[in-house]
Amino acid sequence: MVVLTARYQCKPGMADQVEAALIEMMQLVKDHEPGCVHYLANRGQEDGDAFLLFEQYQDESALAQHSQTQYFKRLVLGTIVPMLEKRERTLYVPIQP
């Protein structure tokens, strides 16, 4: 299992467009990526230009496949990233009891 968090800070006036692209992305991941356990996008309550994504994949291979999809390249790299001031990504491994 591997977890990825991504923090997005949008350029002013871009947050609604980022949200729309994330909604489309969430549905595509749900429909086409059985190796993705969770793909959750959240928008900041106090800062509406801030987003937090929580993604959990069965393994590193599923995460790698995710980043190679045409919709990831179109929506995340082509649409969302140009509308961001900042993008931070962190990988985690769940703690096993």
List the helices and strands and how they pair.
Elements: E1 2-10, H1 15-32, E2 36-43, E3 50-57, H2 60-67, H3 70-80, E4 84-92
Helix pairs in contact: 1-3
Describe the structure.
This protein has helices spanning 15-32, 60-67, 70-80, and strands spanning 2-10, 36-43, 50-57, 84-92. By secondary structure, it is of the alpha+beta class. It has a four-stranded antiparallel beta sheet with strand order 2-3-1-4, covered by helices on one side. A hairpin with a 6-residue loop joins β2 (36-43) and β3 (50-57). The longest helix is centred in the first third of the chain and has 18 residues, at 15-32.
The N- to C-terminal Cα distance equals 14 Å
The CATH architecture is 2-Layer Sandwich
Number of strands: 4
Count of alpha and pi helical runs: 3
Q: What is the 3D shape?
A: globular
